[in-house]
Amino acid sequence: MAVAAAGAGSGPWATQEKQFPPALLSFFIYNPRFGPREGEEENKILFYHPNEVEKNEKIRNVGLCEAIVQFTRTFSPSKPAKSLHTQKNRQFFNEPEEHFWMVMVVRNPIIEKQSKDGKPVIEYQEEELLDKVYSSVLQQCYSMYKLFNGTFLKAMEDGGIELLKERLEKFFHRYLQTLHLQSCDLLDIFGGISFFPLDKMTYLKIQSFINRVEESLNIVKYTAFLYNDQLIWSGLEQDDMRILYKYLTTSLFPRHMEPELAGRDSPIRAEMPGNLQHYGRFLTGPLNLNDPDAKCRFPKIFVNTDDAYEELHLIVYKAMSAAVCFMIDASIQPTLDFCRRLDSVVGPQLTVLASDICEQFNINKRMSGSEKEPQFKFIYFNHMNLAEKSTVHMRKTPSVSLTSVHPDLMKILGDINSDFTRVDEDEEIIVKAMSDYWVVGKKSDRRELYVILNQKNANLIEVNGRSCQVHVAVYNDPSEHRQHDKAFSPALPPKWPAVPTARGDPAAALLTARLPWREGTAPRQSCPLGRCPTCTLCGNSVRGQETLCNAVQQHLLLGLTDSSPKAYLKDTRQTFGHMQVTGHMTDCIQDKGKAILALKNHISTQSPDLLRFLDFKYLCGIN
Amino acid sequence: MGEEDYYLELCERPVQFEKANPVNCVFFDEANKQVFAVRSGGATGVVVKGPDDRNPISFRMDDKGEVKCIKFSLENKILAVQRTSKTVDFCNFIPDNSQLEYTQECKTKNANILGFCWTSSTEIVFITDQGIEFYQVLPEKRSLKLLKSHNLNVNWYMYCPESAVILLSTTVLENVLQPFHFRAGTMSKLPKFEIELPAAPKSTKPSLSERDIAMATVYGQLYVLFLRHHSRTSNSTGAEVVLYHLPREGACKKMHILKLNRTGKFALNVVDNLVVVHHQDTETSVIFDIKLRGEFDGSVTFHHPVLPARSIQPYQIPIAGNGFCRGVSAAVLPRGCVLTMIFGSHIKSYLWNLQVKLEPIVNLLPDKGRLMDFLLQRKECKMVILSVCSQMLSESDRASLPVIATVFDKLNHEYKKYLDAEQSYAMAVEAGQSRSSPLLKRPVRTQAVLDQSDVYTHVLSAFVEKKEMPHKFVIAVLMEYIRSLNQFQIAVQHYLHELVIKTLVQHNLFYMLHQFLQYHVLSDSKPLACLLLSLESFYPPAHQLSLDMLKRLSTANDEIVEVLLSKHQVLAALRFIRGIGGHDNISARKFLDAAKQTEDNMLFYTIFRFFEQRNQRLRGSPNFTPGEHCEEHVAFFKQIFGDQALMRPTTF
């Protein structure tokens, strides 16, 4: 599949081709328990999109999904099927609450070609969609529903099926329109949170501010603080914050253009309540505090649904680029008086704080120097704190997330991620993509880093060294400096330059990061292991190919020994799963199909679970 | 008025002496704080009592006439007695020196001696109505040598022993004051200055009364305190005390005005850098602190009493057989640094030191910021401040966070000042300036310096234990303290961080903890990393946080290896140690042991081969040396993979 990706991306599409992105075909929610008997199947369906579909077809589709899930359950009772691949579309199944199933059907992307006789030929691209991406999207649908409506079960308790149906209809009718399936990618899998880099003192000031506000407005239960759409503090638990963050950054914030940015005489500015002391304003709730009839209605959200099951009002208040979410218990109805008090307490402080942060941010930026457009792009994600950073994605807009790289590269990133998911151990994958692009994926101690490099005629050593440098740069980026994950994980692959001087000294960090990257890698003269006379695969001397061999030995996973079968196996998987290696190695594989088979046997006796990593059929064309 | 309301009290052990009467004359020497009781001109005995010494000095001297003034030199070496207006008699109290009296007549003709002051153990100043004369006493020769003199008309004089400054009142209105400073045989004339007298009715001649002037050292600076009475013509609300700053060099300047807001008779005291003003009519006192913020009008700062007026705490004197007798103030209130109150009782009189009680003030001053400013300037403030901190964090008297923040900031401001002084001292010592510059002194740590361990031990550790406290408040307070320390750039001790972690963990607030660590609010340290490691079973990400922290410390590489090995992450450990270039020195046995424990043969193979290669590279042979104690592992390797799997030495 990687070969397909690399091949397809080798140039702009021919003019006669027409491309249709993936699209949502249908989306439905059902509970098999609600219509167990024949003739009552319709009762199972709680929500169906598009609603216009004829009733029998709805029932048929739901029945099919039910059957597939049931069928696969016999093979894997705990993990029934997650997705179904067909030529035209792909179905994703999710059971967020017991017996409640959500199904999303996505049409595969289509290429419409003109055949020689002028007739359009439709070609479904079956392998284009990544299961993980769209499964994540489906899960997100549920999380978002739950955030604003609570669990399905709660609705059932409150008002039975009718209420549940009503809520689902109300929510998904609008929400589904905001799904932009064509631009879903790796970031949807992560569902990460971008943290704002900040120095300790300013951070403590924010802490102090939050504590004081929570004290003086004592009905506030939780607070979250964001700057520039990036999170600084969350009083909510991680999972709740994750989905709230998604809502804020992709829906609420983009809808509210900054009136500060608008011109003085613009209509937006005129609408703002005339407050000269500060820039604070409500993003949810009353627009104009001076209007005695202003409505103080805030969206309700549901958090900690697993245990405490809390229902809260969500008050979002913003001054310049700083936004604060105050969450108060839903049993207390915030009054206009309360809003005015909040405005007078928070507004001035937040305005000052926002300009403090801005100033501090600019200082940090200046310290890091005027960064030129870097030669690489990266995506970073830490599973532990959901910290996410991407230089691949442009600013998020409500409609699409724009990426600055070719979709095929994004697809490779997704592929690498899928590979990472299969194993718990740390690993590293290097992929040669089209037109001098290299993609490097590293996974280490629950962190993932993906780097996209573009370098003419680069070889493995160079790419490896280069990505090490990127790693150094990412981890020591001064803007990132005092933020999360500054450290190297000790479990990172070897030969990554140590940066003892980088600690606490941004200048030193930069220096390290900007060293000519070749210095960080193994020199060409000798093998890092002291000897490298033979190929690990065929045993033949590869003196003419030291470079490649070194590189393979050096970077591929263990790098500690050249002859551990396990290590070797991973090497091959990585090498051939994604990389088109030219020269000796490829020859080895193709000529020595027997060697592979022997190896396969060897491994199946040693550690059978490793076998699933190897797609032998694809690898060598042998079966 | 409850007992806890009195903020001024008398000292525990007063100096007790016989009441003055025609046969018994009593004198008080401010310089040595001694009370002299002279019976019958000394013939029947002189008893000298000081506040500190328990053994009174008693001696006899011949009755040569009425004693006008009697004072010991510093260290009680020489006794000076004035009996006539022209002469002063001396008597040595130094062992081996003659005890015969000798006499010195003032040099200026027709002058009358107004008094004398000892400026050291052997130097004395005569103040006459025509000037001053500075003498050195030569006890072994039983004579005096005139060092210096100065002529001017003197109405009255005043002496401040701590700063060795004599103030002379000159001119008809008596309001031009001429200060002189004495040090080690030298006398220097300071610029004179004029005290502005309040406008008085034409009928009476205005003049500056000696009773309205006092000199005192406040916060290390010498001030002349002038009690300006309320004048009927002006529309001021009451009397006030004007403080003129008298610097070592330069002119005297009017600096502070203390508003008394009442009229009548007053007496002044300075205790612990506070100006205490006693009001006779109401028998109450008020205190002023010139360091507290007042209203500044561009040249002078106006101050109001820090606290409402209160009496001095009544002192009960036990009298044998009679139970207790409440003393009544005899209203003798000399100016100066010590309050002398002589209580008339049946037979005795008492001299007391006045003290400020800090505990009652805590409740009298509701503004915590001002209270801190006040307390931090007091000598015996430490425990009181700590109790204030504990109190503001208590359930019943809980202060708001901004107030708590202010208090912490004030504490840390003082703490930082001390740390800076300490640091610059250490740097100066290092630079070798200590010998060349005698001015370099090790900074004194006053009680106002409350460091992190003080606050931790006396305030915070007890505070976090309180079950009834909402955890939100506990964390907010801890963060506020850490913020304050950071704001003053004071390195936060790890036990404070541990307190934060402990509290967060107790309430399962792991995500908050994670965020704090993410922003490095909790600074890296080995103890903290170990604590995190121990939390892994409750919160798995703590493992990553801990390892990251150890890595950042860059001094904890051994720990990292141990942690990884204990988690059976043998490869990761090896990679790490190789990454920092330490793989040539590690113990092969340790890694092989760990690899064997994983029961993963492939892993063992890998590790084994790595060390074989290391041996090859370092020693030219893949074999292990006996010193590495790896025989067991070699045997194990052979058993699993066979002899032929061992690496053969390569020969080139």
UniProtKB/TrEMBL annotation, chain A:
Underlying gene: CCZ1
Stretches assigned to the CCZ1/INTU/HSP4 first Longin domain: 25-150
Identification of the protein by name: CCZ1 homolog, vacuolar protein trafficking and biosis associated
Cellular component GO terms, alphabetical: Mon1-Ccz1 complex
Record GO biological process: vesicle-mediated transport
Domain annotation CCZ1/INTU/HPS4 third Longin: ranges: 372-466
Family per record: Belongs to the CCZ1 family.
Xref: InterPro entries: Ccz1 (IPR013176), CCZ1/INTU/HSP4_longin_1 (IPR043987), CCZ1/INTU/HSP4_longin_3 (IPR043989), CCZ1/INTU_longin_2 (IPR043988)
Source superkingdom: Eukaryota
Domain CCZ1/INTU second Longin: start-end pairs: 220-346
PANTHER family associated with the record: VACUOLAR FUSION PROTEIN CCZ1 HOMOLOG-RELATED (PTHR13056)
TrEMBL record, chain B:
Domain (Regulator of MON1-CCZ1 complex N-terminal): residue spans on this chain: 26-144
BP GO annotations: autophagy; regulation of autophagy
Domain Mic1: 378-626
UniProt xrefs under InterPro entries: RMC1, RMC1_C, RMC1_N, WD40/YVTN_repeat-like_dom_sf, WD40_repeat_dom_sf
Alphabetical UniProt keywords: Autophagy, Endosome, Lysosome, Membrane
Domain of life: Eukaryota
Cellular-component GO terms for this entry: late endosome membrane; lysosomal membrane; Mon1-Ccz1 complex
Subcellular location: Late endosome membrane; Lysosome membrane
Pfam annotation, one family: RMC1_C
Main location: membrane
Keyword Cell inner membrane annotated: no
Function description: Component of the CCZ1-MON1 RAB7A guanine exchange factor (GEF). Acts as a positive regulator of CCZ1-MON1A/B function necessary for endosomal/autophagic flux and efficient RAB7A localization.
PANTHER family for the chain: COLON CANCER-ASSOCIATED PROTEIN MIC1, REGULATOR OF MON1-CCZ1 COMPLEX
Family note: Belongs to the RMC1 family.
Protein name, entry field: Regulator of MON1-CCZ1 complex
Organism: Macaca mulatta (Rhesus macaque)
